[in-house]
């Protein structure tokens, strides 16, 4: 199995890098690309969905991004311990009817020795927003390096 640096044990710097790499991958909205950061038998809890394995992750993300249009995400390191990282995140998206949402959440990640995520637990809440309340306005794809993070945005 190949490595996905950075690998545990994490430092503050390497954990923040891992969170940013995950953010960039998720902002690609490419389920196959995202799934490669997880072990083949990775276990997830995402809201009330429980998944096991990369094929389930790909199917889940495919359906997610068919519903959550113009998705833009920011993740921020919250804490770490050896091979575990906690992040907080927010993302904005709209549905097929044009209604906008900001989703707020926390994730706990556990990694194997190769830097692949073997466990992900996510708690997420959606809040309806007006389009003029959006704050994540960069072009689709990764957040630009000079775009502020959650703390800098006062979020």
Structure, described:
This is Nuclear transport factor 2 family protein. It comes from Xanthobacter autotrophicus. Pfam families: DUF1348. With about 160 residues, this protein is α+β, with helices and mostly antiparallel strands. It has a single domain (about 10-135), classed as Nuclear Transport Factor 2, Chain: A (Roll). Helices cover about 25% and strands about 40% of the residues. The protein is built from 3 helices and 6 strands, in the order ααββαββββ. The chain has helices spanning about 10-30, 30-35, 55-65; strands spanning about 40-45, 50, 70-80, 85-95, 100-110, 115-130. Strands 2-1-6-5-4-3 form a 6-stranded mixed β-sheet. Strand 4 and strand 5 (about 100-110) form a beta hairpin. The longest helix is centred in the N-terminal third of the chain and has 17 residues, at about 10-30. The protein is globular, with a radius of gyration of 15 Å. The relative contact order is 0.20. The mean pLDDT is about 95.
């Amino acid at each position: 199995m190949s490595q996905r640096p950075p690998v545990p044990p994490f430092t503050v710097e390497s954990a923040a890098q891992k969170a940013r790499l995950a953010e960039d991958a998720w902002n690609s909205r490419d389920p196959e690309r995202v799934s490669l950061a997880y072990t083949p038998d990775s276990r997830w809890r995402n809201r009330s969905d429980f998944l096991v394995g990369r094929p389930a992750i790909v199917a889940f993300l495919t359906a997610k991004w068919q519903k959550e249009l113009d998705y833009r995400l920011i993740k921020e390191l919250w804490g770490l311990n050896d091979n575990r990282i906690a992040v907080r995140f927010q993302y904005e998206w709209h549905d097929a009817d044009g209604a906008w949402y900001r989703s707020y959440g926390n994730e706990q990640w556990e990694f194997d020795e190769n830097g692949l995520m073997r466990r992900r637990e996510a708690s997420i809440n959606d809040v309806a927003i007006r389009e003029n309340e959006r704050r994540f306005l960069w072009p689709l794809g990764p957040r630009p390096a000079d775009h502020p993070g959650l703390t800098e945005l006062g979020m």
